């Protein structure tokens, strides 16, 4: 077998497991993002600590109208309230995302996907390596010797951060808002500084995830939308020359 | 695509069969141990059932977080205003002297209690947080009779699975399972922060369920009905919340 050969269409660029879990995660992320935004507009004020409400000073307020008339926003109208189904769907999508993430995480540990494809290679864990990649992006120089089959150090850092920092953090801060979960695990809220801190962190981590998705999709478009999509949908045999 | 090896095919087949059988067994067990919420049908039923089942297993005996006195919110938020109906206004005019709480359904001794009757039961106070589904929250001290005391006095029959509770406001009712109904922190609340429970916060009588979101703590309670099924109540979804699009179980 010719490992990593670009002329061998039998070698999938992404494994079935990666492709299936990727697209399930996409569906969940869209559902969580839309419903999360819907939930936020019912109270677009954020606080720090354990408690916060319209009688207390917010940490910051989103400059948008609210979907409830009990929240002072400065606007003279109230947005449509869709909190009910948004909450149902938010938690259902969260369940699917967590279960899919567990399948992906456990398999990727066992089959070496994390070690092989995502953790930055030993020689690459330097600031210089990162700067080189960024310089290459800035000047749009094609990668030397790269066959487009493995990720560079910046990509690896981005993926590893999303998988091992942002995902766990968004799940934790979500659970820390549950009065039932924190009755069993009070530390989940107290370690974050309280329920309202958890809510605020949940909001920012969601923003970081959205930023990742925007950059991720932009890179896919820039580096060849069709081939990248084919790779993530069918596994994609041939890989055209890396354009970045 | 690479042809699938026989071993892989067999392994996948066995795993799939085991998965389906496992789901069937899980559903049976869940039903038996009361892990299926009344609003388990429909598009969002699976997520709702997972949340309820997982949290029932996890929180069987857990206590809602209680806070030190100095964390009591100086300015709590009452949210909705007092009920406008004439019945409530009549009670309010005479200082709630004739307010009564009926306990009926699957109990050995149905009863009707006045507020002073309720105060003869053991009283508990707790400093817990009210968290609204909108996102805001506050901490207050809540004083009242644990629901479990009243249920014991009425003699709950062994087949009981839910306690439905009704507000004096029409169409405002909810229910909890026995895990929350018998929970020591579930309070028939009459006092708040060392005073009587203000009308804005649900006075004269509010059922506080601190392990769930604020909307489960229904204000102006006049009746409790113990039952083995929520089918006969409203649309059979467990409470008025799912009828309005909100989940019955609000532990999140």
How many DSSP H or I helices of chain A? Answer: 9
CATH topology of chain B: Sulfite Oxidase, Chain A, domain 2
| CATH-defined superfamily of chain B | Oxidoreductase, molybdopterin-binding domain
Biggest β-sheet strands, sense, barrel of chain B: 5 strands, mixed
> What share of residues are in beta strands of chain A?
under 5%
Low-confidence stretches of chain A are: 1-9
Describe this structure in words.
The complex is a heterodimer of chains A (244) and B (252). Chain A has helices at residues 16-40, 83-110, 113-118, 127-139, 153-175, 179-184, 187-190, 195-222, 225-233, and strands at 45-46, 60-61. Chain A is mainly α. In chain A, helix 1 (16-40) packs antiparallel against helix 2 (83-110) and helix 5 (153-175) runs antiparallel to helix 8. Chain A starts with 15 loop residues before the first helix and ends in an 11-residue tail after the last helix. Chain B has a single domain (65-243), classed as Oxidoreductase, molybdopterin-binding domain (Sulfite Oxidase, Chain A, domain 2, Alpha-Beta Complex), CATH 3.90.420.10. In chain B, 27% of the residues lie in helices and 23% in strands. Chain B contains seven helices and ten strands. Chain B has helices spanning 6-32, 45-58, 86-93, 115-118, 147-154, 178-181, 240-243; strands spanning 100-105, 111-114, 124-131, 137-146, 162-167, 173-177, 187-192, 195-196, 206-208, 221-227.
């Amino acid at each position: 077998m010719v490992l990593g050969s670009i002329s061998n269409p039998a070698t999938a660029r992404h494994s079935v497991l990666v492709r299936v879990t990727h697209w399930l995660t996409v569906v969940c992320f869209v559902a969580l993002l839309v419903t999360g935004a819907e939930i936020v507009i019912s109270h677009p004020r954020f606080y720090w600590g354990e408690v916060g409400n319209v009688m207390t000073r917010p940490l910051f307020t989103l400059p948008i109208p609210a979907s409830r008339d009990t929240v002072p926003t400065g606007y003279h109208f109230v947005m449509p309230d869709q909190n009910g189904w948004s909450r149902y769907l938010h938690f259902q999508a969260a369940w699917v995302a967590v279960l899919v993430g567990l399948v992906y995480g456990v398999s990727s540990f066992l089959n070496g996907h994390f070690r092989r494809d995502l953790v930055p290679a030993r020689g690459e864990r330097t600031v210089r390596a990162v700067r080189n990649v960024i310089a290459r992006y800035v000047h749009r120089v094609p990668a030397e010797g790269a066959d487009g089959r493995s990720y560079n150090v910046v990509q690896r850092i981005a993926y590893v951060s999303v998988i091992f920092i942002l995902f766990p953090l968004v799940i934790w801060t979500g659970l820390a808002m549950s009065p039932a979960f924190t009755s069993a695990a009070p530390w989940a809220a107290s370690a974050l500084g309280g329920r309202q801190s958890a809510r605020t962190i949940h909001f920012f981590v969601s923003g970081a995830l959205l930023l990742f998705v925007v950059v991720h999709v932009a890179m896919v478009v820039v580096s060849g939308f069709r081939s990248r999509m084919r790779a993530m949908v069918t596994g994609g045999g041939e890989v055209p020359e890396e354009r970045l | 695509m690479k042809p699938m090896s026989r071993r892989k095919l067999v392994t996948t087949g066995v795993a799939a069969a085991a998965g389906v059988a496992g789901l069937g067994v899980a559903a049976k067990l869940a039903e038996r141990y009361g892990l299926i919420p009344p609003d388990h049908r429909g598009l969002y039923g699976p997520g709702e059932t997972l949340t309820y089942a997982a949290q029932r297993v996890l929180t069987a005996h857990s206590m809602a977080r209680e806070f030190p006195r100095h964390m009591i919110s100086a300015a709590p938020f009452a949210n909705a205003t007092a009920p406008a109906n004439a019945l409530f206004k009549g009670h309010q005019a005479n200082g709630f002297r004739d307010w009564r709480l009926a306990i009926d359904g699957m109990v050995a001794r149905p009863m009707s209690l006045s507020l002073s009757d309720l105060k003869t039961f053991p009283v508990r106070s707790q400093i817990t947080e009210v968290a609204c589904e909108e996102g805001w929250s506050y901490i207050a001290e809540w004083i009242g009779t644990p629901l479990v005391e009243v249920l014991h006095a009425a003699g709950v029959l062994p087949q009981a699975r839910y306690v439905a509770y009704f507000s004096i406001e029409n169409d405002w009712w909810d229910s909890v399972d026995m895990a929350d109904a018998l929970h020591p922190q579930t309070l028939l609340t009459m006092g708040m922060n060392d005073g009587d429970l203000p009308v804005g916060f649900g006075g004269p009588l509010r059922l506080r369920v601190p392990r769930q979101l604020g909307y489960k703590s229904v204000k102006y309670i006049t009746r409790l009905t113990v039952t083995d099924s929520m089918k006969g109540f409203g649309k059979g979804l467990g409470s008025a919340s799912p009828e309005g699009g909100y989940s019955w179980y609000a532990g999140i």
